[in-house]
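Hi Prof. W.,

I finally got the GPI ethanolamine phosphate transferase 2 prediction working! I wasn't sure whether to trim anything, so I left the full sequence exactly as given:
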Amino acid sequence: MVQLSLRWLRLAVGNLLLVIAVLVFAKAFFPYKPFLQGLAQHADYHNNGETPAPAQFEKIVFMLVDALRSDFVFGEPSGFEYTQSLIRSGVAIPFTAHATSPTITMPKLKALTTGSIPGFLDLILNFAESDTTSTLATQDNWLAQIKQSGKKLIMFGDDTWLKLFPGIFERTDGTVSFFVSDFTEVDNNVTRHVAPELKQPDWDAMILHYLGLDHIGHKTGPRSQHMIPKQHEMDGIVKQVYRAIETEEHLKNTLFVLVGDHGMNDGGGHGGSSAGETSAALVFMSPKLKALESKYSAPAVPKDEFTFYRRIEQSDVAPTLTTLLGLPIPKNNLGLFIQDFLPLWDEDDQVKILNTNGRELSRLISASYSDFDRLLDEGKCNGKTGQLDTLACAWHSAVLSSVPSEQMKLFSKFASECQEILTSAATNYDTDSMLIAVTTGTLALAIFATTWTVDGIPGSGFYKFLFWALSLSYSGMMMASSYVEEEQQYWYWAASGWGIILLIRELQRGESGSKSIVILILLRLTRRWNQTGQKHAGASDITTSFLSNNPTILWILVFFSYTDMFFRLKRNLETKHSLAVGPVMSISPVVASMLFKLSMAALDTRELIPAFMMELADGFATISVVTQAQLVFSIIFLIGVYLVVVQNSGISGVKVSPIRKLQPFHDLLTIFVATQSRLTNIPLIWFFNVMLLLLDDMKFDSVLQIVLTIVTMQHVSFFALGNSNAISSVDLSNAYNGVSGFNVGVVGILTFLSNWAGPVLWTSGGVGLMCSWMGRKRREQEAQGKNSDDNQPPSTEGTLTDTYLKFAEMTSTFRAVAMVAVMGACMVLRMHLFVWTVFSPKYLFAMTWTGVHHIIVDLGITATLHYMGGR
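And this is what came out:
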């Protein structure tokens, strides 16, 4: 009993230390970047009462279309036909704006409004709708500059603006940005304000943030049938606003900006650093721009992937807008004035604009590098070639030059070099806390390792070697960015290797090996189902190249998958005293789930529905899909209550074995997971259950073999369902099933269950494998007891508590090894070129694997199921 108590204490302390390490490291690795407080004044950049360059515009309409990738506006095909006509006529100046990673809305809004480069922690805050710590209330930006000048601002659309700029708008109508099932109302709520507000003369800046195009991308991808109609809709708003500027007297001096906060990848997601995600459209429009005599063709051919016209940095928007509006450049701006607009001013003012931009950037250099002020005070070039020496020399040369064209060239060079230095500067990491976190995680690992050295893990030395080889080789991968990006390949090969070991085991036991061969075949299909990672992203796979082109075959597979779910649940619900229960209770969740997926396909992915099913699909799609999803979840919940209260509690008077108690819960989870998965992934759920059935029939010898199987297949299923270590792979398409409005808790749970559906299913399946193993162990012990004459105390091996502890100790060991490796890699490689595009996202995924999947699913839910099955 004392030893058992020590094992529980060790498990609790070790996991507590692991969670503490994860949180401490996150705080040290994702710090807020420091910034200069207050708002800039013209006097900050102009000496001796020098006047700034005059404003070219008095008002601004800033229309942001979420996920407006460059080719959506500039390429062909495109629904932005009117916008392209403005480009051809010379009144619209187009650019491709480069959005640095993370390509998520909140960080990109900060970049567009402040000219700075936000920290990676903003990615996390982007998903916290109630968060207020990310406000820009105390940070300089062009909206605050407009407000400071006594002008009025209004905003309609994504309520992220209200969180970033509290109290700055006179009139607002915010819309929750994460309700991705809505393609229309979320935009109609913005558009209904446009016409009346264009008639009102009492505002100076109008912000419009449209979300529908981004939602379409998340649900159905950039090539969706909904995409071009949505582009036509957005182009119609452009036409409405521009014509009002042409005709309304109070708008004649208005600048109209159409911009995307980021793009999207081939899957419709964003957050990473692929060309599609980082390339956003940017168009400046006004009749006054005709004076620039710009000549552009539209649609255009990209210079390289997604780069149309000239490529600028997204941070360049802030200094350009403030200069065009005659306002001071924000204090923390790292952007460069877009020189295409310089001809709007005379030569003296052009010099003044570039001088101002350079002076603003030099203040940031001085704040970061104290030696720079000393070099500037020298007043001359010192002949040295250091980075700061060269920069100071460029400034002196520009100031001393008397030729305007030469001055502009030198000021521009100085500003570009400042931008390069400032944007490449490392984050101020808290390395002491990072080291403490790694040490704490290592201590947790040492505590778990005592399981292997003190208590001993039952199992042959070969399988123990495999466990540590798997854990340590996986941890070694974390030091290489390419391995992190293509992590799925490691798990696919590990699973294939494990399958071959199981085949050899079968043959050694005198069996045919057919079960292992079937598993290997299913693994091969599984790894080709969804192409993921970075290197082969967008390459052909079963989903895109076969199922999407053969919807009839897809639905045959879906039908067989649901049929299998029905028969499994029916068989496990039936008892000799309630034969009618199985068919009645099992048919309802299966049919409800399948019809819900059919209705969702009719609304979002009609190309996946065969012609002969279209009428049926449209008929069911008339019923609210929110109501349909709620019905599915309600039925699953009620059956679960029945299992707990009636069948498994003993009220029914029928004694049910542990495995029969647990199996219906796994069957219900399968239906829920199918509901939360993409339609094309439902056959994979079927494959996983077939594998579990075959694995159970193999009669594993120890919990260690089960843990090796479950850990490997958890990761295989995660990647096979289309996930990767890129933020852009996070699937929100099923995060709002059954949800009529945004609720951070419910949506967060559904998002996790949608993306970790495979690992959760394999954890549940692992409980079933362990219950079967326990049953065999008990029967063996009973048989040994009958044949034994001694009075030895009964073995604890195979008991409920012992089995759970072994599972928890081994999975905790693996997770600690993995987490310490990820923390160590992020710390050592914090200066790496890909720290924000590869290692930071990996850390966020590792946090989820540890803090959510391991703690809640592997430990919490497994304990609950063990208890329910064993009592």
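The two ends are 19 Å apart (CA to CA). Does that look reasonable to you?

Thanks,
D.
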